[in-house]
Amino acid sequence: INAEYMGESTPSVRMSFRVVRQSKYRHVFGQQKKKEECLDGIRISRNAWDSNFCSVNPVFLAVVLEAQGGGSFMVLPHSQVGKIDLDYPKVSGHTAAVLDVQFCPYNDYVIASASEDCTVKVWQLPEGGIPYDPKNAKNNKDLTDAVVTLSGHQRRVGIVEWHPTAENILLSAGFDYLLIVWDVSSGKPLREITCHTDTIFSMSFNFDGSLLATTCKDRLIRVIDPRSGAVVQQGQGHDGTKSSRVVFCGELNKLFTTGFSKSSERQYGIWDPANLASPLKVETIDTGSGVLFPYYDNDTGLVYVAGKGDGNIRYFELDNASPYCYFLNEYKTATPQRGLGWVPKRGVSVGECEIGRCYKLTPKGSIEIVSFIVPRKSTLFQEDIFPPTKEDKALLSAAAWFGGQNATPSKFSLKDGYTPPARAELAAVESAAPVDELEKPPEGEKALLKAWHAQKEELKQLRAQLASAEIKIRQLTTQ
Q1: Looking at the predicted structure, is the pLDDT value of residue 62 above 50?
Q2: Which pTM was predicted?
Q3: Of 354, 369, 453, 429, whose CA–CA distance to 63 is shortest?
Q4: pLDDT-based confidence at residue 357 (cuts at 50, 70, 90)
């Protein structure tokens, strides 16, 4: 540097100044909360399905549990910290393991769950959460009655996703290769999307919910119109056979994917959703074996990437211009992660310059809380790192959205803080009884009861055969 001041040629020094990119998020660091502020003693699900097994909003944390003889998950208010008792009340209405949970983005007291029992259930939580009496376990009762049960898949359901702007619109993806668009208020499917020929790994809505991106075991990335079910764009994704993931990058309108190369190297890719013929950028990350889970923050343009079984969380900054993605840093620990849940921006601590917070599930039953902070000396509101964020309001009815209307999410400033709204009731009809339970036999008639059970079993087998036949037909028609 002194040589440059003396007028001598120092190309290497000048080069170092050119490659350093200016960014207000360049010095973001991860910081774990104290142990007494985290959670422990939770029997987190050990299911092999690649899911985060949790969901977080500004009021609650939901965690899928390892359960025998049925499926359950736990919903904890953020005030509940430390060691969680084994008799803490659960949400337990599924008859098989729960594979995914997702809080409603505009009602903090509503959560959807997907299960191996081929159903999706939508639950309404009581004010303050499920009542818990630490002194008398007899007073603790599980929540067992769902507001609505959505039955339409013929095989287990692995993913649920709420629409970002339309009220009561929920999507589910099953191992029957079906995507179903549900109207939760009526409990009926609005659309069945049958374009996939293999297991659906992930799905993500764009900013206004007019398009849906998916990754699949057939290695294709698809951009779908969820109202018509038509494939708008599709292209070859990552070449590896392991699970790949996709997130729609909000107002940036890019796709960020993670996956594996043919030689099993972990990669990320940037794509233009209007042209999936080739990626804008593909970069090798490392040679790890765990699936990479991406999370995109629309307010900052940062994407966080965490590998299943890894102890670190990498974060990148995305840009509209080439080279599109810049590595910032990584948060490192020796504790591997089972899954991650991210708090919406309206739930972070603005006064501490906390731009992100995640709940990290570990294999030993503890949950670590990690804050991502921009170091600033001033205690005033930092408007440059906290732009207006997405508001927790539904802007369209289910009928209006399905009829073709779109709405850009409304935003509000965090300068004056955020207070979660009061609990609002979810208006939904009671679930219709399954077809095989509409006509039950008279009580006391043993012969009729036996015949009824036989018919029920036969119907179950026929449904399974029909699902297999439909899958084979779709595979043959796409060859």
Answers
A1: yes
A2: 0.86
A3: 369
A4: very high
d(CA 463, CA 288): 40
Q: Which amino acid is at 131?
A: P
Amino acid at the residue 240: G
Give dist(CA 201, CA 203) in Å, integer.
7
- Cis peptide leading into residue 323 (ω within 30°): yes
CA 308 to chain centre: 14
Q: What residue has token string 């219709």?
A: 432
Residue 363 tokens, joined = 């294999």
Q: In the structure encoding, which two tokens stand for residue 223, read together? A: 């951009």
Three-state DSSP string of the chain: CHHHHCCCCCHHHHHHHHHCCCCCCCCCEEEECCHHHCEECCCECCCCCCCCCEEECCCEEEEEECCCCCEEEEEEECCCCEECCCCCCCEEEECCCEEEEEEECCEEEEEEEEECCCEEEEEECCCCCCCCCCCCHHHCCCECCCCEEEECCCCCEEEEEECCCECCEEEEEECCCCEEEEECCCCEEEEEECCCCCCEEEEEECCCCCCEEEEECCCEEEEECCCCCCEEEEEECCCCCCCCEEEECHHHCCEEEEEECCCCCEEEEEEECCECCCCCEEEEEECCCCCEEEEEECCCCEEEEEECCCCEEEEEEECCCCCCEEEEEEEECCCCCCEEEECCHHHCCHHHCEEEEEEEECCCCCEEEEEEECCCCCCCCCCCCCCCEECCCCCECHHHHHCCCCCCCCEECCCCCCCCCCCCCCCCCCCCCCHHHCCCCCCCCHHHHHHHHHHHHHHHHHHHHHHHHHHHHHHHHCC
Overall average pLDDT of the 292-320 stretch: 96
Cα(107)–Cα(130) distance, integer angstroms: 16
How many angstroms separate the CA atoms of 441 and 453, rounded?
10
pLDDT of residue 432: 43
Buried b (16+ CB within 10 A) or exposed e, 247-260: bbbbebebbbbbbb
Residues 231 and 225: their CA atoms lie apart, in Å, by 6
Whole-Å CA distances, 142 to 73, 74, 126, 170, 365: 10, 9, 12, 24, 20
190-194, 422-426, 436-440: lowest mean pLDDT where? 436-440
CA 145 – CA 92 distance, rounded (Å): 8
Strand 91-94 with 71-77, pairing:
antiparallel
- Pair of tokens at residue 179: 């995507």
pLDDT at 446 over 90: no
How far is Cα 284 from Cα 263, in angstroms, rounded to an integer?
11
